[in-house]
Amino acid sequence: MSKKRIFAEEHPEYLKYWDFEKNTLDPYKIGPMCNEKAYWKCEHGHRFERIVFNMSRGNTTCPECKKRSTMVISKPGIMKFWDKEKNTLDPEITPARSNEYAWFKCPKCGYSWRTQICGRLRTDKCPACETNNVIRKGVNDFRTVSPQLALDTSDELNPDIDLNKLGIGSKTRIHWKCHICGFEWDAPIHGRAHRYNGNNGIAACPACAKVRRKDGYDVDYPELVPLYSPNNPIPLNEVRGVKAKFLWICPKHGEYGQKLGHMIRALKNGTIGCPYCNGFKVRREDSAGAKAPELIKEWASSNESTLYEYAPNSKYLATWCCPDCGTKWKAPIYVRVQGYGKCPTCYGNKTFKERYPELEKFYGKDNTLPYEDAIVSDYTPRNWICEKGHEFTASFYKIHDQGFRCPYCENKKALKGYNDFEHLYPVLAQDYDEEKNGNKASEVVVSYRNVYFKCKNGHSFVRPIIRHVELNGQCPICSGTVLKKGSNDLATIYPAVILFWDYEKNEKRPDQVLATLDNSYHFVCSNGHHFKCTLRELVENDFHCPVCEGKRVDPEKTSLQALNPELASEFSVNNKSTASQIAFDTSKKVLWTCPTCGYTYKASVRDRVTSGDLCPACAGKKAHAGFNTLLDLYPEIQDEWAENENALLGIFPDEILPTSNARVWWECKDCGRKYLLSVNMWVEKHIRGMTSCTYCNGLRMRETHVLL
């Protein structure tokens, strides 16, 4: 016969809880599996009833002690910020998991806020000075944290943005103005601030760092404006960087692609950036192979490409192979096209006359050296007359090396009455400023060299002669490309704009900017409404205020930021617009960031204004990790959560609410068995101190196959 089990013998450690005064049961006579209730007393003197069997299983928790341990007074993390002056709740009887709102105050920075008590269980840090969830002026705003950044921006530069509500890590793009060089640009705050070894570093002004330009290329190189193709993705004034390739327009060859840096170098060198005009690229019908097909048989196979890929004036030093003797030699393509640079073996022992008998008719009769005595290596300048009758000088070697080339026919030198600017374009030559240039229009050729011009209206400007011809003498000031006060400025062209001009926000006066319709400016109407729009929009609206007509939002008067700044503080930075750019009564749905839990949700501005707090996480409708999920409120769940089985169901404790009725798998920490039970049922049993395991409770369960 087996020995009778005695509670006192099997669990002597629990006798200290036995209430010998009130109990009628004898612990030395009952067994550990006894289902009768007994009286117990904790170490603090609290009496409570509990079934002996449950006590035997280790459930020694005192209900009163447990209740007190859940009060606010027992939570140091909550009491640290508990505002005793504002709160009317008693922390000794208020549950820490209460959904009631209470006031909290940071002892370090003095920030005061109101939030749900249960929300403070997940953190013991100040949302302002420690977690930066709330930005407070003078505490953790980016200008306080980094005074160096404050030098480059101001509220006046960002009238639509409250800089005091932006932290050092904000992704909001604001307007900057370098306090050193005055360069202005837009960039997010976090892009200028970076952390290194725990310290905040500051990215320098892009202009000072030589990363960005202060002025656009259209200002520094106005000659590029008419060449810039309208088919480019961005206008020339927005281009930054010379390495990018853009489309340009050549009056002779049409549209072509070229890097901006190449175009600038071409302007500085007095040439053109068109690769076809410069001979870097050529069409097959204009190539050297098409112009001189007799050279194809002498073209060596060792050359990089065919003769059809080079222009007739190309200076590429190509390899040639004589079809008669097999000799290989090098000579520029343009020299061969002109009939020079022939095979040195076949023509090496010949005099200049024997090599080039066809040039004797161009040899000047006033030369002292007979033509038949000339040698190739003669460097003495000789007189020549081209077939058009132009007289010029060139040595025998130069002609042999570069070909018979008349400088007047090739437009290298000006010959009055033949190729000079005044002769070719007498009307356009009237704009040539002879006083500033130091010569006459009849003494220069039409080239890419920059010269001074002066239009009929007295405007002085600089551009290459060939560009002046291509633009038909159009003055950049008269055409609105270059500003001239009293002629093409905004105030002169549109006098009505003076009544709307915002002299505080615009850096320049209306008489200091061009009357460009697509440029945006700041305006203010007679009612004090501030708005920003393009000049075209204002002109097409007959100079009427769009804010007065309800078409636009005034950041200072009709915006959400202006009329409800408290609600605007919850406006998410992930919105495409800011609280200063959206109307306070619009039905448009936007993103909001809850100041209590940090959850981002979507709701219309009108609903927020009329209904107040609509955060679904605070209302217990949405799970928000780190705030109200099953794992956040009941971290002890990890001991019983069947991770593998629930992962197959796609359910995770940090993604569901404690009120969820989803049936999930649990693993009993006592018997080790797994069972199905809804989340809310488990939570209810857990709060009551009851065992949720169906096996330990004596309930049968149908065998279920679990895929592990």
TrEMBL record:
Pfam families: DUF4379
InterPro entries referenced in this protein's UniProt entry, alphabetically: DUF4379
Domain Treble clef zinc finger: start-end pairs: 15-68, 78-131, 154-210, 295-348, 568-621, 639-698
Protein name as catalogued: Treble clef zinc finger domain-containing protein
Organism: Holdemanella biformis
